[in-house]
Structure formats: C-alpha cells, structure tokens
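Example record for the data management plan.
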Amino acid sequence: MYDFATMNRIDLDHNATTPMADDVIERVAEVMRDAAGNPGSRHAAGRKARQVLEESRERVAEQLGARGSEVVFTSGGTESINTAILGLARGSDAVVALPPGEHPATERTVDRLTTRGWKELRLPIDTTGRLLNDRLHQFDWSNVRLATALLAHNETGVLQDLSPLVELCRQHRVPLHVDGVQAVGKVPVHFHQLGATALSAGGHKFNGPRGIGLLLIRDGVRLSPLLSGGHQETGRRAGTEPIALIAGLTLALEQAVGQLEWRANHMRTLRDRLQSGLLQLDPTAVVHGDQTHRLPNTLCISFPGRDGDSLLVALDLAGVCCSMGSACSSGSSEPAPILVAMGVPPEQYRSALRFSVGPSNTEAEIDTALQRIQRILHRKGQS
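Corresponding structural encoding:
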C-alpha cells in the first residue's frame, strides 16, 4: 500500500501544463504591484503599464523570430487558435485543409466553419503521424481558403516538416495557421523562417502563467477579431491586457529559449530513460509516433491487453501523473483520433498513455516512477 501523506508525486504530464518558475511568479507579483494601471489610460500609471506591455511585446517577438507589430496577446493557446482560424476564414462554401487528429481547439473550431458551409480536406499522414508531403500536391487546392496544422503533436510529440505545406499555401495564396502550442519553448521556432501566416502559443506550456497566450500574425494580413470591444492589440483582440501575466510569459519564454539546448538534452535523456525502462517492464509495449522527429519530452506508449483508464487511475494512486492524451479532451472515452488516423489497432490505442517530462524532472524521479509502474504492471490480475 502507498502512504499518500508522505508519497512524492511525480509529474510526468508536462504537456498538459507546467509549473510556473519561481522567478516568473515573482515577476508577475512585481508587475501586479508596480504597474497596476490600465495600459490604455493616458496618465502616469497607465503609461507605466503600457511600457511593460510594449517592452514585453518586443522581447517576445525577438525570441520567436517575429516583429513586435506581429504579436497579439490572448488568454491562451485555445483563444489564439480560435482567433486565427475564424479570423482568417473568409466567406463560406470554401475548403479548410488540415491533418487528422489535430488539437480539440482546432477540431472544434473547424466544426464551426462547417456550419457555415465550409468543407474539410484532410491531409494524409503515415503510420508514424507525419504528413505525407509527397502527396499534398495531388489534391485540388482551387477552393482551399485556409490551412492549419500542428507543428508538434500534443499527444504523440511528433514534429512535422511543414515546409512543403507552406510552399503549397504560398503558391495558392492560402493563409496557413500553425499550432505551435506544444512546440514553443521545447524546439526552435522562428516565425519568419517558418513562413506561416499565423502561429499560436500558450504561456503555461513553458513554465509561464496560465491564462495568457499569444498569436503571431504576419504584418499586412487582415484578421477579423474574435472578441468585440475596445481597440486593444491594434484592434485584433479586445479587452484590457493582463500586464502582469504578459510580463510573466515574457520572462518564461526568454528562459525557455535561452536554455533550449540544455532543456532539450535533459528532457530527451529522461524521456529515453523512461521509454527504455517501460519497454523492459513490458516487452509487448508499443511506442507510437516517429521516434526521430518528435519533441524531446514526449512519449506515447501502449500496453496491449490492459485498459488505459485503469492504468491511469492506478498510476494516479501511485503518485505518477500522466495522461491518456490532451488534457482538453480528458473525460472523453473516445480513442485518440490521431492514433486511429495512424492506423493503430484498438488493442493498442485503448491502452495508450502519454508521458511528458519537464526540465524540472530528475533521473531519480524517472527511476522511482518506473518502480511504481512495475508494481502496477506486475500486479496480479491487472487488466
């Protein structure tokens, strides 16, 4: 039996959210105290808040290879995705192109487009979850008016080579939105080099605050605002900007990008240690997704013959935090759409778990987690 009062909980669910760094918390508190004015106010307190806002905008742009004028602050990744897709979609009776199994924020927003008469063009992927780029040009792009794709998949961690899609969109003058929520802070992201029209990110995925995100939108591109109200964010996102959260996001992003190589190497070492240990514990286990082109922190693995829900509960009781996929779709008993699209058989996708490590995890935590998982997997009658 486990002693829950003294048991260390091991967080292996960093793709769901990450803990705020201590100095980020301090920065948020500092700005709350010292720059409490409305950045839209024309007095000293407002000007001070405005200064923090615009300095943050420029610093964020620098980290992501964009211009300050291209940065729009939002409430998080979901709002950024909604704003990009709905704000770039023009008219009706058009086609939106996207791979299967995108994040729920994208899938549900595309559903809204279909109620306006839009049709979906699902771009093909292979069994590892990567786009079949040599087949993209075979589709009819004449009525495609928007494209969207994940840069790094939230469940499998698979990284996409989007350059062929970017080029197709350029040739056909199709705006392309890239969901960079899981990628930013974990792998290099340079907006102008990427060539997309828009890119979404969320602060809490790289040790920043929750409730704050950003949307990069290329200069000169018209974006219909999602929210009606004031003229904040040059008319692209109404609502008083949360200066303290923006300052926290900025610091967290600078730290993540500045430490990118160290963090990636550290997380990759932990991820591979966990993967190797799990495959030794259960030789029938199956790792999903391209194992070369994936985030350094993410492992999607199935334990055939076992029930994923039961495993998840048992792991939680044992003090190991992981997931069965996107936190935004937790509670759903449906199989992960990306695994189905990859052709994963039912006995595998029903037992699939996602482990995602963070820079604060240690080798000792991985070893302890493996010991706890061993007890669960080897428990008589576990299914």
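Summary line stored alongside the record: The longest strand covers residues 144-150.
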